[in-house]
Design goal:
This protein is an alpha+beta fold. It contains 14 helices and 13 strands. The protein folds into 2 domains: 268 residues, Rhopdopsin 7-helix transmembrane proteins (Up-down Bundle), CATH 1.20.1070; 227 residues, Phosphatase 2c, domain 1 (4-Layer Sandwich), CATH 3.60.40. Strand 6 and strand 7 form a beta hairpin. The chain starts with a helix and ends with a strand.
């Protein structure tokens, strides 16, 4: 596995990476401020004071951006995480630059001056590597063979580059620190820029080979262009060393671009989900009264998805003039995958019902059809029943769904503990048993999904079956529409301000 693949696997698998980056950045910022307060600015040149102030301000900006990133719901993406590493390494470079200027010339702290300068050289190499990884991911260069070769070269060169930086602890390769604590460059200093130069060349190649929009490439390249412009305008004219602080301007621009892209994608996704929600709602019976020319039974149903689209569904239709089919089901999972699985299951069930299959045979046929192409191992619980309207006899079968609730004429609602079979799509070659019961005139049947019974309040308490029965029996003789409205009101009152965890789907029928 390549190094960037190992990084991606590590970052996506460990959720503590982003908080650790933020804590590291915040710690360095606090330490930088503490060093400035302890050292003071009384004997520093004005240009150095300005440079240190720019470093501290930039570190604060980086820390705020890191906090924003860890609050991001899309923080698990590799794109976001490489950006986080880039921000953290920029903060490390700012911290080392601050320390180098604040400790310069402190003879008593000569060893510490040596350490912070080695830290600065090492950070510069790591910063370039993090920037490369961000460019490699954000500009989609992974599919380009030339860029993969560049990535391999940088991965290989990273090791000797870091070793060469660490050698300065024992041998003055790139710089030396005199006995007075003064930093001096050595003749081999220019070689320390080799890795940076190679990396920037590779970045420029990637800039021209990338197929992403030009404005995105320019914003990404501002991480290099802004510090270079800063060097030309300030260091050689005023002696300021604020090129690292200038990098935070680029980071803010990149963050703004990422945020704008995300908002654009979110708006597009919301539009598509709204359309999908409308399509899903149109597939379910929603015109009530459903059979205005029939006065021998009354039926009503509703579905309130937890997300824009849901995995629950209900259905009812006349097989012939004397037989009413009723279905209520709950697909595993939520969102778009569950909605697609839901529509496929609903179509299968209705097709088999119109072909005249009994409830038990219908569930067997549907299970077989689902298992044939169930590559995602999804499943659906289903209660399916057929009522003979003239007699009230109901023949039903249950594939792992919730128990139905029945009210006899002039009675109260009670839970019917019917025979359960296995869920559809869970295992091939399953058989199901059907059973009969009677809905006499004045009786009612209430069907629901687990989102009703398992609705949870802010204290993590569930609504439960007992509250369901109490809500139904509060007005037991109410028509189906009123029964469902009463139940929905009770669930909403119980849940309060807590988020809806699951779809709420209900169906009621009375004779």
């Amino acid at each position: 596995m390549k190094i960037q693949d190992q990084m991606q696997s590590f970052f996506l698998r460990n959720k503590w990476v982003l908080p650790l980056c933020f804590l590291t950045s915040a710690t360095l910022t606090v330490m930088g401020i503490a060093i400035c307060l302890a050292r003071g600015f009384s004997d520093l040149q004005n240009t150095f004071t300005f440079s240190v102030g720019a470093d501290v301000f930039s570190m604060l900006v980086c820390t705020v951006l890191l906090y924003s990133c860890i609050q991001d719901k899309e923080g698990a993406s590799m794109h976001t995480r490489t950006f986080v590493l880039l921000i953290m390494m920029t903060n490390c470079v700012l911290f080392s630059d601050l320390c180098c200027w604040m400790l310069q010339g402190e003879a008593a702290l000569r060893t510490l001056v040596l350490v912070v300068n080695v830290f600065s050289f090492t950070n510069a190499a790591c910063l370039l590597y993090c920037f490369w990884q961000y460019v490699f991911n954000s500009l989609n260069l992974k599919e380009n063979r030339i860029m993969r070769g560049c990535d391999l070269v940088l991965n290989i060169l990273m090791v000797p580059t870091i070793i060469a930086c660490l050698l300065n602890f024992v041998y003055p390769l790139y710089f030396r620190v005199s006995h007075t604590g003064e930093y001096h460059r050595e003749p081999a200093f220019m070689w320390s820029q080799t890795y940076l130069a190679i990396g920037l060349v590779f970045v420029m190649i990637g800039f021209f080979l990338s197929k992403v929009p030009m404005r995105e490439r320019i914003v990404t390249m501002s991480f290099v262009l802004i510090p270079i412009a800063n060097q030309l305008l300030t260091r050689y004219k005023f002696g300021l060393t604020t090129q690292y602080a200038a990098m935070t301007v680029s980071i803010v621009l990149i963050y703004a671009r990422v945020f704008a892209q995300r908002q654009k994608r979110l708006a597009s996704t919301q539009k598509e989900l709204s359309m999908a929600s409308g399509i899903q709602a149109a597939m379910l019976p929603s015109d009530f009264p459903a059979f205005p020319d029939r006065n021998d039974f009354d039926i009503y149903a509703s579905m309130t998805p937890a997300k824009e689209v849901g995995g629950d569904f209900y259905d009812f239709f006349l097989i012939d003039d004397d037989h009413l089919a009723m279905v209520i089901a709950d697909v595993s999972g939520k969102g778009v995958p569950a909605a697609l699985f839901m529509m496929m299951s609903r179509i299968m069930i209705k097709n088999f019902a119109m072909m005249g299959y009994s409830p038990a045979d219908l569930l067997e046929q549907t299970n077989t059809a689902i298992c044939m192409n169930n590559t995602k191992d999804m499943f659906v619980t289903v209660w399916y029943g057929v009522m003979e309207i003239s007699t009230g006899k109901v023949t039903a079968a249950n594939a792992g769904h919730e128990y139905p609730i029945v009210r006899k004429a002039n009675g109260s609602f009670e839970l019917m503990r019917d025979k359960h079979g296995f869920v559809l799509g869970g295992m091939e070659d399953m058989t199901y048993r059907q059973y009969d019961f009677e809905l006499e005139k004045g009786a009612a049947l209430f069907l629901y999904t687990d989102g009703v019974a398992e609705a949870t309040d802010a204290e993590n308490r569930m609504f439960g079956v007992d509250r369901m029965l109490a809500a139904l029996n509060a007005d037991a003789s109410a028509p189906p529409k009123k029964l469902i409205e009463n139940m929905k009101s009770e669930v909403d009152r119980f849940v309060g301000d807590a988020d809806q965890f699951d779809d709420l789907t209900m169906l009621a029928v009375s004779r």
